[in-house]
């Protein structure tokens, strides 16, 4: 892989910050070292002294005074070492990336912690995209991605998808305007990456099948583009034996994978992690050095303590409990849809995540119905148009989340919605 061809001039120009390097050195230094170097504030002046946080199994996570001082201090930009090593092991166990023992220059697997996966994705996009670059994705797409991509001035090429995710033949067709060797000629502007949410896509709830992933990966090899695998709903797959990821197929070191703790541990902690080839992860970390400096030390320590306390098995058992919850929520929402919306709307039952994507029959554009009529009846949902680059285009689709409402509320919401649809036809 020639990673330099994927970097913007800004990203390529990033240099390590001397102060950040000193912070790293200090974190590894023995207690005998006298530091007059960094501008870290003196934690003895901080007003917070200790904390005990109770986990749902009743076990406490203790922050004694020493630990608290560390939790409240600056830390390494890539993430605190004990969390990084735990996460690396997890990635190896779950995905067994072929690149794990590659030399760095050939894309050895590396990982960094970010302030939520969104922060990591945003940095990845800024690392790669120059104005006018072509990027591939499948609309409808997570609006956070659109809002991050569009100001960068890239040319978004939509690849058709269905209930099983991106359609490889459609991708083939899109790519057929180039020759594989065009990737060596910058003037040909071959797509830099394909972005996709492979499990429980937001907003459609669709998941990409393994065979399609394999076909897409082969096309990425042929036309030499990166794959950005944004997978915050990976842990919320409703069927056992989780789908193999792009990372698990990555023999070239061309996959950048975004994981999130938001859906399984908590969203307000703002912790996610980006896994990918070391030459690219290093660029993300250099960006972090000059932006957030590092994700919150306190939340990293909290999560790291919890994960070490649980072990991988405990973490996966927790994930299973969370998934059970969302599976039941999904069943309740689908039951409510079957009961009230049959004949009025169409949908596919999601196999992961927290969203149902519905199409109202016979209404060309549901924006007004969702944004005005439904709100008047006290139901909040998102109209489909917000998940397209062209938000002005009419859409008969809307997105419903089954994360928070109770089964009774879901039933009531769809009963009201059915009434509104009937009145609007
Ligand atoms: C597809 C997708 N990517 C990324 C994110 C951002 O997640 P995080 O909270 O980890 O930043 C979300 C959040 O909803 C999402 O749905």
From TrEMBL:
Residues 198-209 have a biased composition (Polar residues). Pathway: Amino-acid degradation; L-lysine degradation via saccharopine pathway; glutaryl-CoA from L-lysine: step 4/6. It catalyses: L-kynurenine + 2-oxoglutarate = kynurenate + L-glutamate + H2O; 2-oxo-3-sulfanylpropanoate + L-kynurenine = kynurenate + L-cysteine + H2O; glyoxylate + L-phenylalanine = 3-phenylpyruvate + glycine; 4-methyl-2-oxopentanoate + L-kynurenine = kynurenate + L-leucine + H2O. Its EC number is 2.6.1.39, 2.6.1.4, 2.6.1.63, 2.6.1.7. Residues 180-209 are annotated as: Disordered. Keywords: Aminotransferase, Pyridoxal phosphate, Transferase. Its cofactor is pyridoxal 5'-phosphate. One of its GO terms (cellular component) is mitochondrial matrix. GO terms for molecular function: 2-aminoadipate transaminase activity; glycine:2-oxoglutarate aminotransferase activity; kynurenine-glyoxylate transaminase activity; kynurenine-oxoglutarate transaminase activity; methionine-glyoxylate transaminase activity; protein homodimerization activity; pyridoxal phosphate binding. It holds the Pfam family Aminotran_1_2. Residues 65-417 form the Aminotransferase class I/classII large domain. Gene3D superfamilies: Type I PLP-dependent aspartate aminotransferase-like (Major domain) (3.40.640.10). One of its GO terms (biological process) is kynurenine metabolic process. Belongs to the class-I pyridoxal-phosphate-dependent aminotransferase family. PANTHER family: AMINOTRANSFERASE, KYNURENINE_ALPHA-AMINOADIPATE AMINOTRANSFERASE, MITOCHONDRIAL. Transaminase with broad substrate specificity. Has transaminase activity towards aminoadipate, kynurenine, methionine and glutamate. Shows activity also towards tryptophan, aspartate and hydroxykynurenine. Accepts a variety of oxo-acids as amino-group acceptors, with a preference for 2-oxoglutarate, 2-oxocaproic acid, phenylpyruvate and alpha-oxo-gamma-methiol butyric acid. Can also use glyoxylate as amino-group acceptor (in vitro). This is Kynurenine/alpha-aminoadipate aminotransferase, mitochondrial.
